[in-house]
Amino acid sequence: MRLRYLPWRRVKSWRCTACGECCSRYAVPLSAGEYARLVSRFGDWVVRLKLGRPYLRRVSGRCVFLSGRLCSLQGSLKPYACRIFPFLVRDREKKPRKEAEFWYGQSCFYVYLSPGCGEVRLGTPERWFVEQVIPEAIELHLNRSMPLRWLTSQAAPLPPEHYAGVGDDAPVVPRYVSAVSVLEQLSSGGTPLLRRRNRRRDGTVAAG
To answer: Which residues contact 54 (CB under 8 A, 6 or more apart)?
Structure first.
């Protein structure tokens, strides 16, 4: 299925709800580096070639790495096409569209979203969407390995250990955290935050 895109100025808001629909609807293209990492880790059965270009394999109409509604690929293994969806960010265009222009720092980017994602809401852009979500999409465009906050699911409530801190100057973690980031910590052998001092929700540090 071919994606179509709308300029960001037509989009009211977007957030990932971990619905898993994009993992069922669309084929995921891979870069040469992503292809090499995945084949090295899992074997060549997880990918397929179409006209010489590698994609993640689909089984029964779903991405082979989709587990329930969540992706089992995280960190450096997750393809850029998955991390950036439903955004498309360009540095330049042959025919620039004013509606797509977004100034970030001293540079102008062209930002689009695909209404193929059911969570793309059309209308006048909301402030948090403009100030938090779009800048992260641009930063990911510039640095494909960066950790994500807004471009991944915010569906899971924070477990108590996420209020832990290293010291009195440690920042208080936001109230919600990505569902898949919790899975990342568990898959890496548990969270080191459990071994730190507990930080209360008001920002003070508990003794012990």
So the answer is: 29, 30, 32, 34, 35, 47, 48
